[in-house]
Amino acid sequence: MKITLNTDWTVSDICKGFHYDTNDDKGLNGLNGELIIQPEYQRNYIYGDGKRDKAVVESLVNGYPIGLMYFVKNSDGKYEVLDGQQRITSFGRFVENGAGRFAINETKGTPWYIDSMPEDKREALLNSRLTVYVCEGEPSEIEAWFGIINIAGVPLTAQELRNASYHGPFVSAARAIFSNAHDPHMHIWQAFVKGNPRRQEILEVALEWVAHSQNMTIENYMSAHRGDSGADELKRYFDSVIGWVRSVFRYTGSEMKGQPWGEYYEKYHMTAYNPDAIDRRVHELMADEAVTDKRGIIPFLLGGEKDLKLLNVRIFDERTKKAAYERQTTDAKVRGVSNCPLCAISDGPNHDRIYELKEMDADHVAAWSKGGATDESNCQMLCQTHNRAKGNR
Length: 393
Known about the structure:
Number of helices: 17
Structural class: alpha+beta
Low-confidence stretches: none
Number of strands: 10
Mean pLDDT: 89
Helix content: 40-55%
Strand content: 5-15%
Distance between the termini: 67 Å
Number of domains: 4
Largest sheet: 6 strands, mixed
Order of helices and strands: EHEEEEHEEHHEHHHHHHHHHHHHEEH
Radius of gyration: 31 Å
Shape: elongated
Strand order of the largest sheet: 1-8-6-7-5-4
């Protein structure tokens, strides 16, 4: 790979032809159309937090270096930003003074915009020279270098690295759908999917779901579809999963976000559910203090309320167990039977055995799954043998 150092380009040069796209949160072009600021393998713009973007501009105004940048020179003579697009988009937004405009110097008095800042400061900014390494080489070399130079910056997410490795028309189409934070569907999707679309985390979930449905890894799926001109299958499957979830559940609390919906869809989407009954049970279980794993309510209901372990039902506390033990033991001694109710009604050798507290377990008299409460009135102590043999807990 050939690498050439360029120190002639200024901020003003780079900003010629720059336009910040507020829909995609990215600056598209610079150098009068000769520079692609955000190639498809790059992450979306993440510096627009009112801190890092201002720090970039204020550093340039004060004559401080903002670090090395790397451009790729393509066979058509145009350039792509390999590393530095966050910084370029930050100063580009400031210089353009358009929809993405922001001010600096706010803590020192009057805020400065590009058209209201002192002329000498504006000239210092626009004439700031950048240090850029221009790279020329094979795609595989560029991709490998991209991963190496980003180690020192904000770490790339797993999906951002995949986008670099499998860049092409499929990645571009998929990003257009799942990486646009301003898409009107995003607020619906994010009720069920965790992640930042700008960091490719919604796209990663969509890929995980469709890949799982085909017994593939994300990498294998992206490789197989790398040359596709669109991402129709990916979008259709994602919409099918979200549509199914919304048809079964009306509840949209935080417990719904980040569930393995793709896995649940494959397992349960042919099962008929009553949305009214599901909604009623969701609210009952959410309100039940004995249910300590609220996220487990979702798979518990989808599975027909069979696996109680998913709910991590709260056990009786030590005070309750001790009170039940003392009550049962006092009564058993008076009657001359075991303090384990099940041993007491048996003809076995333990019919009149008095167990120590450590030899017994607390049990619901009326099973929790049938509405029994987890309190002292519904607590009985059983010997460990009988408690572990008892069903319907």
